[in-house]
C-alpha cells in the first residue's frame, strides 16, 4: 500500500505543479485564469480575484504537502487535493447547467470548452486523492528502488492528467 501512496502523491504533486505553473509562469497567465473564473459565472464577480488567489495558493499547498516526507502532511495534501477536485467539479457542473462552456484555464492556455472531459479529469483526481489518503494511512516502510518506480509512475500519471484535454482530443475529437 505504501507504494500506491507514493504514486498517488506523486501524481497529485505533478498535476498541481503543472496547474500552478500554467497559471503563474508566463506574463498574463494569472490574469487569464482570473478572467476564465469570471466567465464561468459561478461566483460573484467581486469574488473572482480572491477566488483565483485562493485557488492557486491551495494548489501550491497541495504540491508541498503531497511531496512532504511527513506522513500527516502527505495525508493532508491528498485531502486538500480531494477537496479542490470536488470543488472544481461543482464549479464546472454549475457553469454547464447555466449553459456556459467558456474554456477553462485550469492548466494555463486552453481552447477546450468546459464539458464532460473536465468532470472526468476531476473525478480521476478525486479518485487518486482518496486512494492516496487510504494508502497513506497504511503503515509500512518503502525500499528505495521500488519507491523510485512508484514515484516515476506517479510522475507519468500526473503528466497524463495535466494533458487530459489533449489526450481526450486525440481519442475522441470534439465537434
Which series of helices and strands comes N to C?
HHHHHHH
Q: Helical amount among residues, as a percent range?
A: over 70%
Please count the beta strands (DSSP E, at least 2 residues each). 0
Residue-averaged pLDDT, rounded?
91
Let me know the largest β-sheet: none
Q: Counting H and I runs of at least 4 residues, what is the number of helices?
A: 7
- Output the radius of gyration: 16 Å
- The best one-word shape is globular
Class computed from helices, strands and strand pairing:
mainly alpha
Distance between the termini: 41 Å
> Beta-sheet strand percentage?
under 5%
The number of domains: 1
- Unreliable stretches, pLDDT < 50, 5 or more residues? none
Question: What this model shows, in words?
Answer:
The structure is a single chain. Helix 1 (2-24) runs antiparallel to helix 3 (48-66). The protein is mainly alpha-helical and 175 residues long. Helix content is 74%, strand content 0%. 37% of the residues are buried. The chain has helices spanning 2-24, 29-40, 48-66, 71-97, 116-137, 144-162, 164-171. The chain is built from seven helices and no strands. It has one domain (2-171).
Question: How is this structure best summarized?
Answer:
The chain is mostly helical. It contains 7 helices and no strands.
Topology:
Layout: H1 2-24, H2 29-40, H3 48-66, H4 71-97, H5 116-137, H6 144-162, H7 164-171
Helix pairs in contact: 1-3, 1-5, 1-6, 2-3, 3-4, 4-5
Amino acid at each position: 500500500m505504501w507504494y500506491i501512496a507514493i504514486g498517488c502523491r506523486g501524481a497529485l504533486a505533478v498535476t498541481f505543479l503543472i496547474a500552478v505553473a500554467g497559471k503563474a509562469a508566463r506574463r498574463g497567465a494569472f490574469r487569464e485564469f482570473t478572467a476564465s473564473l469570471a466567465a464561468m459565472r459561478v461566483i460573484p464577480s467581486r469574488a473572482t480575484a480572491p477566488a483565483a488567489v485562493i485557488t492557486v495558493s491551495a494548489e501550491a499547498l497541495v504540491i508541498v504537502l503531497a511531496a512532504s516526507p511527513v506522513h500527516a502532511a502527505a495525508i493532508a495534501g491528498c485531502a486538500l487535493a480531494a477537496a479542490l477536485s470536488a470543488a472544481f467539479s461543482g464549479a464546472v457542473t454549475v457553469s454547464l447547467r447555466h449553459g456556459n462552456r467558456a474554456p477553462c484555464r485550469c492548466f494555463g492556455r486552453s481552447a477546450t470548452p468546459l464539458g464532460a472531459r473536465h468532470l472526468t479529469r476531476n473525478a480521476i483526481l478525486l479518485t487518486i486523492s482518496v486512494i492516496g489518503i487510504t494508502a497513506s494511512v497504511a503503515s509500512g516502510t518503502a525500499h528505495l528502488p521500488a519507491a523510485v518506480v512508484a514515484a516515476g509512475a506517479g510522475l507519468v500519471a500526473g503528466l497524463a492528467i495535466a494533458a487530459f484535454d489533449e489526450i481526450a482530443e486525440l481519442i475522441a475529437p470534439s465537434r
